[in-house]
Each structure stands twice: as C-alpha cells, then as structure tokens.
Design brief:
This protein is of the alpha+beta class. It is built from 15 helices and ten strands. The strands form four sheets. Strands 8-7-9-10 form a four-stranded mixed beta sheet. A two-stranded antiparallel ribbon has the order 1-2. It has a two-stranded antiparallel ribbon with strand order 3-4.
Length: 409
C-alpha cells in the first residue's frame, strides 16, 4: 500500500534523517535563543534548543518573549514596503543635520514639508520626473496656469527658496544664470523663468524622450535638497535670532520667520501638485504647522485688501485708509477656520493700520483649514470655496478674492 506516493517501507528511512540534538551546555543553548526565535539556527541546533526548553523554565520564558518580539517585527499581513525603508529613513533623519541643535519653532514647518517632499521624490524614475504638472494661481481675479514637469516644479522651488538663501548669506542658485538680470531684482515668477532658461529645463515635457536640454531632469533634486538642508542648518545654528531678518520678494518683503512659513506652504502645495501628477496620495501638513500657515495668510489679508482697492479690484473701504490711526479698531470680518488646524481671526476691512474688532464685526466666513489654504494657493476659486457665510456680502467677496490673490507662480 502507498500513502501520498511513498511506500510505507520508506518511513523507517525518513526517521534516519531527523536531526540529532547536539550536546551543548546551558550557556551555549541560552546564547542560541535569539537565533532560534528568528529561525536562523541549523536543524541540529534547533533540535537541541527545543529539547532544552522542555526542561528549563527560565530559558522557556526568554524564548517566549523573543518569539513575541519577532512577531511584532514581522507582521503577518503584507505592508508592501521596501525592506530597506527603515534603514533609509534612519540614515536620512540622522544625516539631515547634527543632533542636539534644535530647529527654531518658526522654521519647523519648512523643515517638515521639505523632508516630506524629499521622501516623495526618493524613488522617482525618468517617467515621474517628466510627468506633466500645471502650476496654478489667480491673477487679476482670473485663474492662471503654467505647464511644466515634476522637475520644473522642483526647479521653481529651488529658485524661489533662493530668496531666503541669499538673505541668509548662502549661495543663490540663480547667481550664475546666463543672461539673467541681477537676481535680487527678480520676484518669484521672474526667478523661476530665469532658472528654467539657464538650466535648459523644458517647461513642459510629457514624455522622457521629449526633453529639449542637456540637464537630466532628476539632477535638479540634489541642489534643491542641499539648499533646503542648508536653510534649516543655518537658521538652527543662529539659535533662531535671525527670525526678524528681511527677505525681499521683488515687489514686497517678509521677515524671515514669515518667509520660512511661506516656503513651507509652497513646498506643501507643490508637493500635492506632484503627487497628483504621479497619482500618489499626499496628506496635509501636521495641524500645528497648518495652523501657522493659515495665520500667516490671515495676517497678510489686510495688506492684500488695501492693494486690491488701489488696483480697483475691490470696493473702496468705508474709511480713508491713511486717516485710520494705527491700532484703531475697524470694521472686521471674522474668519473661522474649522478642523484640527482651526481658529478664528478678525480681519480689518478698511485699512491694514486698523485692528480687527469683534464689536465692529460686519461679516463672518467659515472654511475648512485645508480648503482655505487651497483657496490661498489659487487651487480653488472664491466662487467654488465651500464656505459658511453671513453678513456683508461685499466684505465676504472682497476677503475671499483677497485670499485667492495671495497665490502666485
């Protein structure tokens, strides 16, 4: 008779193949418990350890704990992760900057967003670097866009982050741009166009074979990554004392602590653009960082409102701006941001010199935090922003359009 294809007479032969436990001391067997838990022992060593566990309580307890620990390290379900991911993450974290040098609180959002974007770019191949991306913003109350590639977006970030770099005394990536105007005279859009030209970077190239310049597109990641690390290292070594340094943006300027927030915001927004282009999920920033980005936008709104009035894009205020004493209360719109990054801001409507006043509140707008940021990035139109509204309709319209006017290339 046969069972499973083996003659019964062969069973005796199989028994001869069973491993014979080795005669090992207690100390040696104890030293083998870690390897046994990881299934790294030889057959003979495994047999010796398991025979020993039947009669040694302390080793049996230790073996159980080791097996439980191994179970935590090796989840039964597949997570579809690169086996080297943990090593790469640790090396990246340790290599970003020297430990024990804290990043200033106001620079932490940029540090986090640059790290997240760098992780997204980590394994991009040629196809991803050539993926088409459309930069979007509002200009003169109309949606505007510019086609480029993933590489073009990183070059854009590199060029505009260079404004902060030069303010800190670091090299300007645009300084050697052939034929470019004096870099300090260019704003974000001008710097981007100049860098694209100087780098022979195609603005839009939907396929790896469509590039029209000598620069390998993936090579733009290295300079951007090094510059972002340099910015974080420099402000960290200053101990945060440089936060009030002025960063010129061409036709306006920001103190360094606000410029770093602005760059964190742009880094996140364009990382979302890239993730959308390669069909990859990308979550919003941490709520505490998102709250600071929202606060920056809210603080800029009164100045933007005043500029829009001068340009004839908004109705004149109820009071002549230059007659409003600094710090005087003025008509206000209450901006309520919902969600984990939320809060409330009173936006003075008639003059940036005024302060918001709950007693003079004439309108109320409620938005989700991420939705407000996408409005400020020019990715959502004022008409399409999902908002709760109440009060003066003109004031509401002016503030929503002013928020969209914060966007730029």
């Amino acid at each position: 008779m046969e069972d499973g294809g083996l003659p019964l007479s062969g069973l005796a032969d199989l028994g001869d193949l069973a491993p014979v436990p080795l005669d090992l001391s207690h100390d040696v067997l104890k030293s083998l418990l870690g390897a046994w838990a990881l299934a790294a022992c030889s057959a003979a060593e495994t047999a010796a350890v398991e025979e020993h566990l039947g009669g040694c309580g302390s080793c049996a307890d230790e073996a159980r704990r080791l097996r439980e620990a191994v179970g935590l390290l090796h989840q039964p379900e597949s997570l579809d992760l690169d086996p080297s991911l943990r090593t790469r993450v640790l090396e990246s974290c340790l290599g970003r900057r020297p430990p024990r040098i804290p990043v200033p609180d106001w620079a932490a959002p940029y540090d986090a967003e640059a790290a997240r974007l760098d992780a997204l770019l980590q394994d991009f191949g040629d196809a991803e670097w050539h993926a088409p991306v459309r930069l979007r913003w509002f200009e003169a109350d109309l949606p505007t866009s510019r086609p480029t590639t993933v590489a073009g977006v990183i070059a854009h970030l590199l060029a505009v982050d260079g404004l902060v770099a030069t303010a800190l005394g670091l090299p300007d990536p645009l300084a050697e741009a052939a034929g470019a105007a004096e870099p300090g005279t260019l704003g974000p859009a001008g710097r981007t166009e100049a860098y694209w030209r100087a780098s022979h970077l195609p603005p839009a190239s939907p396929h790896p074979s469509g590039g029209n310049g000598p620069l390998p597109l993936r090579s733009v990641r290295g300079p951007w990554r090094e510059q972002s690390h340099g910015l974080v290292r420099t402000v960290s070594f200053t101990g945060g004392h440089a936060g009030g340094l002025t960063v010129p943006y061409g036709d306006f300027s920001l103190p360094l602590h606000d410029a770093m927030l602005d760059r964190a915001f742009e880094c996140w927004v364009h990382a979302e653009d890239i993730a959308e282009a390669v069909d990859y999920p990308y979550p919003p920033p941490a709520p505490r960082h998102l709250n600071r980005m929202i606060d920056l936008a809210a603080r800029l709104l009164p100045t933007v409102l005043a500029g829009r009035r001068r340009a004839g894009l908004s109705e004149p205020g109820r009071r002549t701006p230059h007659l409003v004493p600094a710090g005087a209360p003025g008509r206000s719109l209450r901006l309520e941001i919902e969600g984990a990054a939320g809060g409330e801001w009173l936006i003075p409507l008639d003059s940036p010199a005024a302060v918001g006043s709950a007693d003079l509140e004439v309108a109320h707008v409620a938005l989700d935090g991420v939705e407000f940021c996408r409005l400020a990035a020019g990715h959502v139109s004022p008409e399409d922003a999902a908002v709760g509204q109440g009060g003066d309709r003109r004031a509401i319209r002016d503030v929503l359009y002013a928020a969209a006017s914060l966007s730029r290339m």
